[in-house]
Design brief:
Elements: E1 8-12, H1 16-22, H2 27-48, E2 52-59, H3 67-82, H4 84-92, E3 95-100, H5 108-121, E4 127-135, H6 137-150, H7 160-166, E5 177-180, E6 199-202, H8 212-224
Length: about 240
């Protein structure tokens, strides 16, 4: 059996609010359960040998949600990224944490917490955790274009490699596998450029119900796929 492991996984932890609604619970309860499930997912990735995890935490469109829900999510991020035991755990496992998105839209206190955890973990290189907060795939491409304009880069020097180096995920490998829980089958304006050749796995499970068995199924399905990257890799004797 092919034991290939995806180097970089992108996660859509979708369905927290629907999960809570099914139980007649407030949306906040769903987000609490979703956060606990993410803790499990992070451990599964590390145990399996995955090296990079990018998770969709809060999109640019999510600002349209109720103030109560948005405030709760921002406080959840702030608490999760500032806990002493959590930072110690990241340090012990040599995890580098990076927050990608429009940081200037976040509260000053959350920006401070983000700056601290990125600074503290910047020299870690065993595992890379990217948390997307106030992130949108189109925004990411637009901000790369703005950098090109500000740097006055000549047209002849603009290519895919340059654009990739100016995205918020610069320096990281392209995603190998994208896992979306919650039953939806769309990208929702996430890592649009980066995911050009990613393998996709959709789960009907709402995120709080997503299990380690579901994770292993996604990874095992990935291991059986032949990746072509837009070409006929069979012809060139390539797999993966």
């Amino acid at each position: 059996m092919n034991k290939r492991i995806p180097n970089h996984i992108v996660l859509f932890p979708d369905g927290n609010r629907r999960w809570a609604d099914k139980k007649n619970w407030p949306a906040i309860k769903g987000h609490q359960q979703g956060y606990q499930k993410f803790e499990d997912f992070l451990n599964w990735c590390q145990e399996k040998g995955v090296k990079v995890l990018t998770v969709f935490g809060f999109s640019t469109e999510n600002w349209k949600r109720s103030k109560k829900e948005v405030d709760y999510l921002m406080k959840l991020f702030e608490n999760a990224l500032s806990k002493k035991d959590k930072i110690e755990k990241f340090q012990k496992a040599r995890v580098r944490v990076r927050i990608i998105g429009e940081k200037n839209k976040l509260s000053k206190s959350l920006q401070k917490v983000i700056a601290n955890i990125e600074k503290v973990t910047k020299n870690n290189s065993d595992f890379y955790l990217n948390l997307a907060v106030s992130y949108g795939g189109r925004w990411d491409i637009v901000q790369a274009i703005k950098k090109i304009i500000r740097k006055k880069i000549p047209v002849k020097d603009i290519n895919e490699e340059l654009v990739g180096s100016l995205l918020s995920t610069a320096g990281l490998p392209a995603p190998d596998l994208i896992i979306r829980a919650g039953g939806e089958k769309r990208f929702s304006n996430f890592v649009l450029w980066q995911a050009a050749y990613s393998e996709l796995h959709f789960s009907s499970k709402l995120w709080p119900d997503f299990s380690e068995k579901d994770f292993k199924k996604a990874v095992n399905d990935y291991a059986l796929r032949q990746r072509r990257f837009g070409g006929d890799n069979k012809k060139h004797g390539k797999r993966g």
